[in-house]
Amino acid sequence: SFDTFYRKIKDNTLKSYGHQEYPFDRLIDDLGGKNDRSRSAIFDIVLVLQNTGEKIRNIEIQKDKINTIESTGVVSSKFDLEVLFQEVNDHLFLKVNYNTDVYDGDMVEGLMSHFKELLSSLLVSPDLPI
Q: In what side-by-side order are the strands of the sheet with 91-98?
């Protein structure tokens, strides 16, 4: 189930904090990776939760912007896909940056639509098998 999977990921993540002082350059060397400064040496996709312990409050949310996908123009990123979450009031906002050489807009919009559907299903039935 997702709930069981989540608990395993949480436990592994908490255990991994014991190794957070491992030098990144040594990790790259130990993995046999190439250190290309224009790209990440280990992964092409990053998921980030902007969570400082406090929710951003008192920001007026435009109701017509909720559940919409819109382009904000060209940005720079070292990753092929970058998914950023941020808590604002009682909402979780999602921002996606992607490499247009790897992904096209329709594919990313489809991915986000499926992701929203998955989250909705998990909130209703976290014990269903993945």
A: 45-50, 81-88, 91-98
Strand partners, 45: 81
- Average pLDDT estimate for 39-67: 69
Contact 14, 50 (CB under 8 A): no
Q: In this structure, what token pair is assigned to residue 21?
A: 């002082």
pTM of the full structure = 0.68
Greatest CA separation for the chain: 49
- How many C-beta atoms surround the C-beta of residue 96 within 10 A? 16
Given a contact cutoff of 8 angstroms between Cβ atoms, the answer to whether 77 and 102 are in contact is no
How many C-beta atoms lie closer than 10 Å to residue 98's C-beta? 20
